[in-house]
Amino acid sequence: MPTSFAQLGVEEKLVLALNQQGINEPTAIQEQAIPLVLERHDVVGQSETGTGKTLAYLLPIFQKIDRLKRENQALILTPTHELALQINAEIGILAKNSGLPVTAAAIIGNVNITRQIEKLKEKPHILVGSSGRILELIKKRKISAQSLKTIVLDEADRLLDEDNVHDVAAVVKTALRDTQLLLFSATLPETTTQRAMEFLKNPQVLRVTKTIKINPTISHDYIVAEQRDKFEVLRKLIRSISPKRALIFVNKSEEIEKTVEKLNYHGIEAEGIYGGASKINRHKAMDEFRSGKLRILVASDLASRGLDIKGISHIFNLDLPEDHQIYLHRVGRAGRAGEGGKAISLVTKSEISYLKKLENVYGININPKEMAFGKIVDPQKRQFYGRAKTRTKNPS
């Protein structure tokens, strides 16, 4: 008999709210983490992308909020603006469906700080945001870290990398010593856990899958192309497949805008999310992609972290990720909640060896494919397919 949310100690109003969202049973990470968070342990939780890590900490945080007090009681740090806004929206849905008067605010960089200060005067219970802007507002005494009961590092591996660790550590140090710390991520490199131990207190470490496996409903293909020809192959793929909803991954942010422009030039409507894009354009792209109005979104790995949008059917890797763990994050965007998905990587001949490593690490098959007459075919079938086309055009 599966464990229920009620058995984990989740209050009835929250259970009913989850039911409204079609969530009836806890995932493995939720089952292990929720009781520990409710008991105020520090927790380090590792679980695959798309396994419900956000609710693993949000549910107990909701339950521990003193709703009669107007003060900041929980802080959730994220590595990207998009993830902060997504979590903030999830808090809003949970509050609305449960009827619990829990308030929240997204506090991120590259946004009018005066408006954020006005919002902070309302003393939202939960703050979600980027470490840089949060630290800035703490220094301005607009956020009081002394009232925080819980601090969450969502996508902890990114928050504790070289670029972010100093701001994150500075934020954590402004809180009281007994503030609960929760770290969640799909991957936990040794450097992440070592840095985290500097401010964790006897943490409960949860590794739901020590050997990380990729969702079996996702199939993996690759097509060999010269670097200069990759975009042309991508364009033909999109025309051939006409994906329901697709994410295209590009390693360099500056190449995202170029890729979007090329796709639009060829009549393929696409938008991009990247650091250089304006906040308004990023929000517009995300909203349209989430609603289904936009079918093609081009993104960097950083911008896509934590992206939880139902119905993503295809992942296109225009560039291979620099680290094999990032491949996990990328393909984890598709095939969620048991749905099928397909990941297609465009590679040069020299990059095929990298795919073999991915196959060994994750126990998957990445199948070679080719484009022939506007169709995706197996290499051994290409010659036959070509002959069949020729016979059709020139009947005897």
TrEMBL record:
InterPro entries: DEAD/DEAH_box_helicase_dom (IPR011545), DEAD/DEAH_RhlB (IPR044742), DEAD_box_RNA_helicases (IPR050547), Helicase_ATP-bd (IPR014001), Helicase_C-like (IPR001650), P-loop_NTPase (IPR027417), RNA-helicase_DEAD-box_CS (IPR000629), RNA_helicase_DEAD_Q_motif (IPR014014). Residues 34-206 form the Helicase ATP-binding domain. The keyword Kinase does not apply. It is an enzyme of class 3 (hydrolase). One of its GO terms (cellular component) is ribosome. Coiled coil: none annotated. Residues 3-31 form the DEAD-box RNA helicase Q domain. Keywords: ATP-binding, Helicase, Hydrolase, Nucleotide-binding. The keyword ATP-binding applies. GO terms for molecular function: ATP binding; hydrolase activity; RNA helicase activity; RNA strand annealing activity. GO terms for biological process: response to cold. Transmembrane segments: none annotated. It comes from the Bacteria. Pfam families: DEAD, Helicase_C. Its EC number is 3.6.4.13. A motif (Q motif) lies at residues 3-31. SUPFAM superfamilies: P-loop containing nucleoside triphosphate hydrolases. Residues 233-377 form the Helicase C-terminal domain. Belongs to the DEAD box helicase family. This is DEAD-box ATP-dependent RNA helicase CshA. It comes from Desulfosporosinus acididurans.
